[in-house]
Amino acid sequence: MADNSKEFDSKEAAKFVNLSLEVFSEKAKSLKIPGWKTGKFNENSLRKYFEVEANESFDSNIIAISNQKGGEGKTTISLYLAEALSLEHKVLLVDWDPQANATQLFLKEDVPSVMDCLGYRGRKTRTLKSIIENVAPNFDLVPSSLELANLTTPYERDDFELLREALLPIRSEYEYIIIDCPPSLGLILENALICADYILVPIQTRAFSLQGIKDLHETISKIQKKANQRLKLLGAVLNQYEGQKALSGLAEGIRKYFPVFETVVYRRESIPQAQAKMSLLSKIDSSTVKNFKDLALEVKEKIHVQKN
Ligand SMILES: Nc1ncnc2c1ncn2[C@@H]1O[C@H](COP(=O)(O)OP(=O)(O)O)[C@@H](O)[C@H]1O
Ligand SMILES: [Mg+2]
Protein backbone atom coordinates (compact mmCIF):
# COMPACT_ATOMS: atom_id res chain seq x y z
CA MET A 1 0.00 0.00 0.00
CA ALA A 2 3.07 2.18 -0.03
CA ASP A 3 2.07 3.64 -3.41
CA ASN A 4 -0.84 5.38 -1.73
CA SER A 5 1.26 8.17 -0.32
CA LYS A 6 1.08 11.76 -1.46
CA GLU A 7 2.96 13.18 -4.43
CA PHE A 8 4.80 16.48 -4.05
CA ASP A 9 6.55 18.82 -6.46
CA SER A 10 9.99 20.10 -5.36
CA LYS A 11 8.61 23.14 -3.59
CA GLU A 12 6.00 21.16 -1.66
CA ALA A 13 8.55 18.47 -0.87
CA ALA A 14 10.97 21.04 0.56
CA LYS A 15 8.21 22.42 2.75
CA PHE A 16 7.22 18.94 3.88
CA VAL A 17 10.72 18.22 5.17
CA ASN A 18 11.19 21.73 6.56
CA LEU A 19 14.06 22.81 4.30
CA SER A 20 14.52 25.68 1.89
CA LEU A 21 13.97 24.73 -1.74
CA GLU A 22 17.67 25.28 -2.43
CA VAL A 23 18.96 23.07 0.35
CA PHE A 24 16.34 20.44 -0.40
CA SER A 25 17.17 20.33 -4.11
CA GLU A 26 20.87 19.95 -3.39
CA LYS A 27 20.22 17.13 -0.95
CA ALA A 28 17.78 15.41 -3.29
CA LYS A 29 20.40 15.46 -6.02
CA SER A 30 23.35 14.35 -3.92
CA LEU A 31 21.39 11.52 -2.27
CA LYS A 32 19.63 10.64 -5.55
CA ILE A 33 16.28 10.64 -3.80
CA PRO A 34 13.68 9.16 -6.15
CA GLY A 35 12.17 12.15 -7.95
CA TRP A 36 15.36 14.26 -8.07
CA LYS A 37 15.28 14.15 -11.87
CA THR A 38 11.55 14.50 -12.50
CA GLY A 39 10.85 16.92 -9.66
CA LYS A 40 8.02 14.66 -8.45
CA PHE A 41 8.53 13.29 -4.96
CA ASN A 42 6.58 10.71 -3.05
CA GLU A 43 5.81 11.15 0.64
CA ASN A 44 7.01 7.68 1.59
CA SER A 45 10.40 8.07 -0.03
CA LEU A 46 10.85 11.52 1.54
CA ARG A 47 10.18 10.00 4.93
CA LYS A 48 12.98 7.52 4.33
CA TYR A 49 15.55 10.24 3.77
CA PHE A 50 14.37 12.93 6.16
CA GLU A 51 13.28 13.07 9.73
CA VAL A 52 9.88 14.66 9.18
CA GLU A 53 8.95 16.36 12.41
CA ALA A 54 5.35 16.76 13.37
CA ASN A 55 4.80 20.50 13.29
CA GLU A 56 1.40 20.46 14.94
CA SER A 57 0.27 19.01 18.19
CA PHE A 58 -3.22 17.76 18.78
CA ASP A 59 -5.52 17.24 21.70
CA SER A 60 -5.61 13.63 20.58
CA ASN A 61 -8.58 11.31 20.95
CA ILE A 62 -7.82 7.67 21.68
CA ILE A 63 -10.65 5.34 20.70
CA ALA A 64 -10.58 1.65 21.66
CA ILE A 65 -12.62 -0.53 19.31
CA SER A 66 -13.57 -3.41 21.54
CA ASN A 67 -15.78 -6.41 21.95
CA GLN A 68 -14.42 -9.61 23.48
CA LYS A 69 -16.12 -11.72 20.81
CA GLY A 70 -14.33 -12.48 17.54
CA GLY A 71 -15.91 -11.68 14.18
CA GLU A 72 -17.93 -8.68 15.36
CA GLY A 73 -16.12 -6.25 13.05
CA LYS A 74 -13.49 -4.72 15.35
CA THR A 75 -10.71 -4.90 12.79
CA THR A 76 -13.00 -3.88 9.92
CA ILE A 77 -14.35 -0.84 11.74
CA SER A 78 -10.88 0.08 13.07
CA LEU A 79 -9.45 0.00 9.55
CA TYR A 80 -12.14 1.86 7.68
CA LEU A 81 -12.99 4.32 10.42
CA ALA A 82 -9.26 5.14 10.46
CA GLU A 83 -9.26 5.41 6.66
CA ALA A 84 -12.30 7.71 6.67
CA LEU A 85 -10.87 9.91 9.44
CA SER A 86 -7.51 10.12 7.64
CA LEU A 87 -9.15 12.01 4.77
CA GLU A 88 -9.22 15.03 7.08
CA HIS A 89 -7.16 14.20 10.14
CA LYS A 90 -3.89 12.65 11.18
CA VAL A 91 -4.66 9.12 12.31
CA LEU A 92 -2.73 6.33 14.02
CA LEU A 93 -4.10 2.80 14.00
CA VAL A 94 -2.70 0.63 16.80
CA ASP A 95 -2.99 -3.06 16.05
CA TRP A 96 -3.47 -4.35 19.58
CA ASP A 97 -4.47 -7.90 18.76
CA PRO A 98 -1.92 -10.78 18.80
CA GLN A 99 -3.67 -12.13 15.69
CA ALA A 100 -2.29 -9.06 13.91
CA ASN A 101 -5.03 -9.07 11.25
CA ALA A 102 -4.74 -5.35 10.54
CA THR A 103 -0.93 -5.55 10.36
CA GLN A 104 -1.02 -8.41 7.88
CA LEU A 105 -3.22 -6.36 5.56
CA PHE A 106 -0.48 -3.77 5.18
CA LEU A 107 2.83 -5.51 5.83
CA LYS A 108 4.06 -8.69 4.25
CA GLU A 109 7.28 -9.17 6.17
CA ASP A 110 7.96 -9.49 9.85
CA VAL A 111 8.67 -6.09 11.32
CA PRO A 112 9.29 -4.94 14.88
CA SER A 113 5.97 -4.95 16.67
CA VAL A 114 4.25 -3.23 19.54
CA MET A 115 5.43 -5.90 22.02
CA ASP A 116 9.01 -4.65 21.41
CA CYS A 117 7.97 -1.25 22.79
CA LEU A 118 6.33 -2.14 26.08
CA GLY A 119 9.17 -3.19 28.39
CA TYR A 120 7.01 -6.03 29.73
CA ARG A 121 9.05 -8.23 32.12
CA GLY A 122 12.27 -6.42 31.38
CA ARG A 123 12.13 -7.15 27.65
CA LYS A 124 14.42 -5.01 25.51
CA THR A 125 12.55 -2.00 24.23
CA ARG A 126 12.29 0.30 21.27
CA THR A 127 10.26 3.47 21.19
CA LEU A 128 6.82 3.17 19.68
CA LYS A 129 7.71 5.97 17.28
CA SER A 130 10.55 3.91 15.82
CA ILE A 131 8.26 1.09 14.70
CA ILE A 132 5.42 3.14 13.22
CA GLU A 133 4.73 2.46 9.54
CA ASN A 134 3.09 5.01 7.26
CA VAL A 135 0.48 3.13 5.21
CA ALA A 136 -1.36 5.96 3.46
CA PRO A 137 -1.41 9.76 3.62
CA ASN A 138 -2.26 10.82 7.20
CA PHE A 139 -2.58 7.17 8.15
CA ASP A 140 0.07 5.47 10.31
CA LEU A 141 0.11 1.99 11.80
CA VAL A 142 1.63 0.43 14.91
CA PRO A 143 2.16 -3.23 13.90
CA SER A 144 1.32 -6.14 16.13
CA SER A 145 2.52 -9.74 16.23
CA LEU A 146 1.71 -13.02 17.91
CA GLU A 147 4.20 -12.13 20.65
CA LEU A 148 1.64 -9.77 22.13
CA ALA A 149 -0.19 -12.92 23.30
CA ASN A 150 2.47 -13.17 26.04
CA LEU A 151 1.01 -10.12 27.73
CA THR A 152 -1.16 -12.14 30.07
CA THR A 153 -0.17 -11.70 33.69
CA PRO A 154 0.40 -8.44 35.52
CA TYR A 155 3.64 -8.80 37.49
CA GLU A 156 3.87 -5.18 38.45
CA ARG A 157 1.33 -2.43 38.91
CA ASP A 158 2.66 -0.72 35.81
CA ASP A 159 1.81 -3.69 33.64
CA PHE A 160 -1.71 -2.29 33.27
CA GLU A 161 -0.33 0.93 31.83
CA LEU A 162 2.22 -0.34 29.33
CA LEU A 163 0.33 0.81 26.24
CA ARG A 164 -0.58 4.13 27.82
CA GLU A 165 3.08 4.80 28.67
CA ALA A 166 4.26 3.77 25.20
CA LEU A 167 1.74 6.05 23.48
CA LEU A 168 2.26 9.11 25.68
CA PRO A 169 5.31 10.52 23.85
CA ILE A 170 3.56 10.42 20.46
CA ARG A 171 -0.11 10.88 21.14
CA SER A 172 -0.10 14.61 20.49
CA GLU A 173 1.13 13.96 16.94
CA TYR A 174 -2.24 12.46 16.03
CA GLU A 175 -5.78 13.75 16.13
CA TYR A 176 -7.25 10.28 16.32
CA ILE A 177 -5.66 7.10 17.64
CA ILE A 178 -7.69 3.97 16.99
CA ILE A 179 -6.92 0.81 18.97
CA ASP A 180 -8.02 -2.45 17.37
CA CYS A 181 -8.56 -4.65 20.45
CA PRO A 182 -8.27 -8.44 20.76
CA PRO A 183 -11.25 -10.79 21.08
CA SER A 184 -10.69 -11.40 24.78
CA LEU A 185 -11.08 -9.90 28.21
CA GLY A 186 -7.81 -9.72 30.11
CA LEU A 187 -4.60 -7.76 30.47
CA ILE A 188 -4.33 -6.84 26.78
CA LEU A 189 -7.84 -5.37 26.73
CA GLU A 190 -7.31 -3.71 30.11
CA ASN A 191 -4.21 -1.95 28.79
CA ALA A 192 -6.27 -0.60 25.90
CA LEU A 193 -9.11 0.59 28.11
CA ILE A 194 -6.73 2.23 30.57
CA CYS A 195 -5.09 4.28 27.86
CA ALA A 196 -8.23 5.09 25.83
CA ASP A 197 -10.44 8.16 26.11
CA TYR A 198 -13.38 6.53 24.33
CA ILE A 199 -14.76 3.10 23.52
CA LEU A 200 -16.68 2.04 20.46
CA VAL A 201 -18.26 -1.44 20.50
CA PRO A 202 -18.95 -3.14 17.15
CA ILE A 203 -21.83 -5.60 17.31
CA GLN A 204 -22.59 -8.08 14.59
CA THR A 205 -26.34 -7.96 14.13
CA ARG A 206 -26.92 -11.47 12.82
CA ALA A 207 -25.67 -13.61 15.68
CA PHE A 208 -25.26 -11.55 18.73
CA SER A 209 -25.19 -12.30 22.43
CA LEU A 210 -26.60 -10.01 25.04
CA GLN A 211 -24.56 -11.88 27.66
CA GLY A 212 -21.34 -10.89 25.86
CA ILE A 213 -22.44 -7.26 25.90
CA LYS A 214 -23.22 -7.47 29.60
CA ASP A 215 -19.74 -8.90 30.31
CA LEU A 216 -18.04 -6.15 28.33
CA HIS A 217 -20.14 -3.56 30.12
CA GLU A 218 -18.92 -4.92 33.46
CA THR A 219 -15.28 -4.78 32.37
CA ILE A 220 -15.71 -1.20 31.20
CA SER A 221 -17.42 -0.11 34.43
CA LYS A 222 -14.65 -1.70 36.48
CA ILE A 223 -11.97 0.14 34.53
CA GLN A 224 -13.91 3.42 34.72
CA LYS A 225 -14.18 3.14 38.49
CA LYS A 226 -10.73 1.84 39.32
CA ALA A 227 -8.26 2.85 36.68
CA ASN A 228 -9.46 5.35 34.07
CA GLN A 229 -12.10 7.87 34.97
CA ARG A 230 -11.64 9.64 31.62
CA LEU A 231 -12.93 6.62 29.75
CA LYS A 232 -16.23 7.36 28.01
CA LEU A 233 -18.52 5.16 26.00
CA LEU A 234 -19.16 6.40 22.51
CA GLY A 235 -21.55 3.52 21.96
CA ALA A 236 -22.29 0.39 20.00
CA VAL A 237 -22.17 0.24 16.21
CA LEU A 238 -24.41 -2.34 14.54
CA ASN A 239 -22.35 -4.14 11.92
CA GLN A 240 -23.16 -6.38 8.96
CA TYR A 241 -26.60 -4.83 8.96
CA GLU A 242 -28.87 -6.14 6.21
CA GLY A 243 -32.02 -4.20 6.83
CA GLN A 244 -33.43 -6.62 9.40
CA LYS A 245 -36.86 -5.62 10.58
CA ALA A 246 -36.12 -6.89 14.08
CA LEU A 247 -33.42 -4.27 14.39
CA SER A 248 -35.33 -1.95 16.68
CA GLY A 249 -35.84 -4.77 19.20
CA LEU A 250 -32.16 -5.61 19.00
CA ALA A 251 -31.12 -2.02 19.49
CA GLU A 252 -33.48 -1.85 22.50
CA GLY A 253 -31.68 -4.80 24.11
CA ILE A 254 -28.29 -3.24 23.52
CA ARG A 255 -29.41 0.15 24.80
CA LYS A 256 -29.78 -1.28 28.30
CA TYR A 257 -25.97 -1.33 28.34
CA PHE A 258 -24.67 0.99 25.65
CA PRO A 259 -25.91 3.92 23.60
CA VAL A 260 -26.34 2.84 19.97
CA PHE A 261 -24.96 4.76 16.99
CA GLU A 262 -27.48 5.99 14.46
CA THR A 263 -25.11 5.02 11.67
CA VAL A 264 -25.11 1.30 10.98
CA VAL A 265 -22.43 -0.50 8.96
CA TYR A 266 -24.06 -2.43 6.15
CA ARG A 267 -23.03 -5.88 5.13
CA ARG A 268 -21.03 -5.38 1.93
CA GLU A 269 -19.06 -7.93 -0.08
CA SER A 270 -16.51 -5.26 -0.94
CA ILE A 271 -15.34 -5.34 2.70
CA PRO A 272 -13.88 -8.88 2.72
CA GLN A 273 -12.78 -8.26 -0.89
CA ALA A 274 -10.73 -5.19 0.07
CA GLN A 275 -9.21 -7.20 2.92
CA ALA A 276 -8.35 -10.13 0.64
CA LYS A 277 -6.70 -7.75 -1.82
CA MET A 278 -4.83 -5.98 0.99
CA SER A 279 -6.21 -2.74 -0.28
CA LEU A 280 -7.66 0.39 1.18
CA LEU A 281 -11.45 0.45 0.89
CA SER A 282 -11.36 3.61 -1.21
CA LYS A 283 -9.56 1.68 -3.95
CA ILE A 284 -12.33 -0.91 -4.11
CA ASP A 285 -15.69 0.62 -3.29
CA SER A 286 -16.38 4.31 -2.82
CA SER A 287 -20.02 3.80 -1.79
CA THR A 288 -18.94 1.74 1.22
CA VAL A 289 -16.37 4.41 2.04
CA LYS A 290 -19.36 6.77 2.33
CA ASN A 291 -20.81 4.48 5.02
CA PHE A 292 -17.59 4.84 7.04
CA LYS A 293 -17.43 8.60 6.41
CA ASP A 294 -20.90 8.82 8.00
CA LEU A 295 -19.64 6.76 10.91
CA ALA A 296 -16.57 9.02 11.25
CA LEU A 297 -18.84 12.06 11.32
CA GLU A 298 -20.99 10.58 14.06
CA VAL A 299 -17.86 9.63 16.05
CA LYS A 300 -16.63 13.22 15.79
CA GLU A 301 -20.02 14.62 16.85
CA LYS A 302 -20.21 12.28 19.83
CA ILE A 303 -16.67 13.21 20.92
CA HIS A 304 -17.54 16.87 20.56
CA VAL A 305 -20.63 16.45 22.77
CA GLN A 306 -18.64 14.50 25.39
CA LYS A 307 -15.96 17.19 25.53
CA ASN A 308 -18.33 20.09 25.97
N1 LIG B 1 -19.93 -4.94 7.22
C1 LIG B 1 -19.39 -6.07 6.77
N2 LIG B 1 -19.74 -6.60 5.58
C2 LIG B 1 -19.20 -7.75 5.14
N3 LIG B 1 -18.24 -8.44 5.79
C3 LIG B 1 -17.82 -7.95 6.99
C4 LIG B 1 -18.36 -6.75 7.53
N4 LIG B 1 -17.74 -6.52 8.72
C5 LIG B 1 -16.86 -7.53 8.90
N5 LIG B 1 -16.90 -8.39 7.87
C6 LIG B 1 -16.11 -9.62 7.71
O1 LIG B 1 -16.32 -10.42 8.86
C7 LIG B 1 -15.13 -11.02 9.30
C8 LIG B 1 -14.83 -10.63 10.74
O2 LIG B 1 -14.65 -9.23 10.83
P1 LIG B 1 -13.45 -8.60 11.67
O3 LIG B 1 -13.48 -7.13 11.44
O4 LIG B 1 -12.17 -9.31 11.39
O5 LIG B 1 -13.95 -8.94 13.15
P2 LIG B 1 -13.14 -8.91 14.54
O6 LIG B 1 -11.96 -8.03 14.38
O7 LIG B 1 -14.15 -8.40 15.54
O8 LIG B 1 -12.76 -10.33 14.84
C9 LIG B 1 -14.04 -10.55 8.33
O9 LIG B 1 -13.84 -11.55 7.38
C10 LIG B 1 -14.63 -9.31 7.68
O10 LIG B 1 -14.18 -9.16 6.34
MG1 LIG C 1 -9.92 -8.40 14.76
UniProtKB/TrEMBL annotation:
It comes from the Bacteria. Residues 61-232 form the AAA domain. InterPro entries: AAA_dom, DNA_Partitioning_ATPase, P-loop_NTPase. CDD domains: ParAB_family. SUPFAM superfamilies: P-loop containing nucleoside triphosphate hydrolases. This is Chromosome partitioning protein ParA. It comes from Leptospira idonii.
